[in-house]
Design a protein that fits this description.
The complex is a heterodimer of chains A (348) and B (273). Chain A is built from 13 helices and two strands. In chain A, strand 1 and strand 2 form a beta hairpin. In chain B, 39% of the residues lie in helices and 22% in strands. In chain B, the strands form two sheets. In chain B, strands 6-7-8-3-9-10 form a six-stranded mixed beta sheet, sandwiched between helices. A four-stranded antiparallel beta sheet of chain B has the order 2-1-4-5, with helices on one face. In chain B, a hairpin with a 2-residue loop joins strand 4 and strand 5. In chain B, helix 5 packs across helix 6. The longest helix of chain B is centred in the middle third of the chain and has 21 residues. Chain B starts with a strand and ends with a helix. The chains are: A mainly alpha (348), B alpha/beta (273). At the A-B interface, helix 7, helix 8 and helix 9 of A face helix 2, helix 3, helix 4, helix 5 and helix 6 of B.
Chain lengths: 348, 273
């Protein structure tokens, strides 16, 4: 039916120049190389300040990657993502300080609590679309913060103090450097896990929903449960980041989980390029480190930060590292020419 | 018993009756065209059968099972695939990824397979890619399949949508105006494609305004007007049916005998939108 052979239409003027770079960024080595760079960082800068800032950045990467699943992959605008971060931080904080759990032991409970939180926010709200969903998630984020502010078990406005460090194989991660390595490893697993999910059946279903919900439904994808899955996975990622956060600061209080924080995570995702995992990582590192780099400007710090964000968004709307738009290895030769429609399941 | 049994199907939007007691059936591997003037309720009937609209009355049974109360995804998984009147592809995804959507329910991989890249994950993904390419081959979509579907020429987009629907391995394929916007050559290839789909033992129901195409391909034609089936039979018989002629040309007893052939060129009257 294609009267027009579309080969002449592919426009890639910068092909030769960018070939080497894209060959690397599309390869499986991108993640490992980034990981090695992150692990090598303390050998270049090992001050407690540098390590503390970069540990926070690693936690923030985890948050951005989790939100990227919800917003970037599935297209559900969530303005209350800090709620899941708070649930994770508070659940491990409370269990560790009041019930004598070690931080590692709190992880299963954090996962469970965030799954429940994801279902609570997801089940009633996902029938809504776009703007309405954004408003409701914003409300949910505030509800969690206000609740934490008023309950006794969460320590009210002053929060919870004395949250212990992680202990692994008898090593306590009180030392900045050890904590940094641990956090980077967890964040790396989070990034790898999220991007693997993105390349799976579930991840594709999320993108189909983002592109056209009715068409996805017509393909036999239950859009309702698939969207809830996005919420739940995003919530677990956020909750685990909350656990790391609580342990790093040894204290949590409602002031850490404001709307501004949700907005910053969203900003990292948008800045990086929605739906792109490398983008979310880059955006998160950028958002968490830029204010530190601009610290010398003292009171103009956030002013400069704001200006910079506007400039980036004006000149690079697709984000710093947008999702790949083509499939490079789309083959045309497949072994069997006739599709296997008649003989039942091709997969056993 | 028929593959699809629609009985007294009714769809009301407030006071407007879009589908008004529609009854028709489709047999295994049959090619049926649904025609009728604009606003006759053809697409509305499709939407009821595929679960996108909730029918307000009557029934639609597919392979013996009532489907009017089901979610669209459940109906799709049970073997009814469809295309949309105005293309509903996933514009920002590649051609292959679009077809992969159709294979969704056939892949046996869970979240842990995906996280750990188990052999089962690799097998499923390999199958998914291969099968997508096979369906694209089947519909005759040549050219680069790794690029975004929104950059394809219109005719190719139509083909991708059919490939995506076929990839769900339906027993019944509903095509909503598959010929709209296609040129003469593309229509000829569409006819050939629909015949090849029939050979896969898939029943095809198409809504179409192009009477030439309808008469050439249909084994049976169902004519809708005001939400009701006013005629149902082989194309030759339907073409001469006085009720059909009246629906298309308006009630004029003096001329209705002589304009029978006009229905054959009826796309001008029916507005091939």
């Amino acid at each position: 039916m294609a009267a027009v052979a579309p080969t002449s239409r592919s426009r890639r003027p910068d092909r030769r120049a960018s070939n080497l770079i894209t060959a690397f960024t599309d390869s499986r080595w991108l993640g490992p190389v980034a990981f090695v760079l992150a692990i090598g960082f303390p050998f270049a800068y090992s001050s407690n300040y540098a390590l503390s800032v970069t540990t926070s950045a690693a936690v923030f990467v985890m948050l951005a990657v989790g939100l990227n699943i919800v917003v970037g992959y599935c297209g559900l605008l969530d303005l209350g993502y800090a709620a899941f971060f708070a649930v994770g931080a508070y659940v491990s904080g409370i269990l560790a300080t009041q019930h004598g759990f070690s931080m590692v032991e709190t992880i299963p409970f954090v996962i469970l609590a965030t799954i429940v939180a994801g279902l609570i926010i997801g089940t009633p709200t996902l029938r809504l679309r776009s703007d309405y969903l954004a408003i409701v998630t914003l409300g949910f984020g505030e509800i969690i913060r206000v609740t934490a502010n008023n309950l006794d078990i969460t320590g009210g406005p002053s929060g919870i103090y004395g949250i212990p460090s992680f202990e692994l194989f008898g090593y306590s991660l009180t030392d900045q450097r050890r904590l940094y390595y641990f956090t980077v490893c967890v964040a790396a697993l989070a990034v790898a896990g999220a991007s693997r999910l993105g390349r799976s059946k579930l991840g594709r279903a999320w993108r189909f929903i983002r592109e056209d919900e009715d068409a996805a439904e017509a393909m036999g994808i239950n859009t309702y449960t698939t969207k809830i899955a996005a919420y739940v996975v995003g919530a677990v990622w956020g909750g685990l980041a909350g656990t790391l956060f609580a342990s790093q600061l040894s204290a949590v209080s409602p002031a850490s989980f404001t709307f501004l924080y949700s907005a910053l995570v969203l900003m990292a995702v948008v800045l990086g390029g929605m739906g792109s995992m490398p983008g979310a990582v880059l955006g998160a590192i950028f958002i968490s480190l830029a204010p530190e780099v601009l610290r010398d400007l003292s009171k103009y710090q956030y002013f400069a930060f704001g200006i910079f964000l506007i400039v980036v968004m004006l000149f690079r709307q697709q984000g710093l590292w947008p999702a790949r738009a083509v499939e490079r290895d789309a083959r045309r030769d497949v072994p069997d020419v006739e599709p296997t429609l008649a003989d039942g399941d091709g997969l056993r | 018993m028929s593959l699809l049994e629609v009985r007294n199907l009714e769809l009301r939007f407030g006071g407007v009756i879009a589908v008004d007691g529609l009854t028709f059936s489709v047999g295994d591997g049959e090619i049926v065209s649904v025609i009728g003037p604009n606003g006759a309720g053809k697409t509305s009937a499709f939407n009821c059968i595929t679960g996108f609209y909730r029918a307000t009355g009557g029934s639609a049974r597919f392979a013996g099972r009532e489907v009017t109360k089901d979610r669209p995804s459940r109906i799709a998984a049970s073997g009814i695939a469809r295309t949309f009147q105005n293309l509903r592809l996933f514009p920002e995804l590649t051609v292959v990824d679009n077809v992969r959507a159709g294979l969704h329910t056939q892949l046996r991989e869970n979240v842990f397979d995906a996280l750990l890249h188990t052999p089962r994950y690799r097998r499923a993904e390999q199958f998914c890619s291969d099968e997508s390419h096979r369906w694209l081959d089947f519909v005759g979509m040549t050219g680069d399949r790794g690029r975004l579907v929104r950059n394809l020429p219109y005719g190719d987009q139509r083909l991708v949508e059919i490939a995506r629907a076929l990839a769900t391995r339906p027993k019944l394929l509903l095509l909503d105006e598959p010929g709209a916007g296609l040129n003469h050559g593309e229509k000829a290839r569409l006819i050939d494609l629909i015949r090849r789909i029939k050979k896969l033992a898939v029943a095809v129901v198409l809504i179409e305004h192009d009477m030439g195409l309808v008469m050439k391909i249909s084994e049976r034609v169902v004519v809708l007007n005001y939400g009701k089936a006013i005629a149902d039979g082989p194309p030759e018989q339907v073409k001469r049916d006085p009720a059909v002629i009246e629906a298309y040309l308006g009630p004029d007893e003096e001329t209705s005998q002589s304009v029978g052939t006009d229905v054959e060129r009826g796309d001008t009257h029916a507005g091939g939108s």
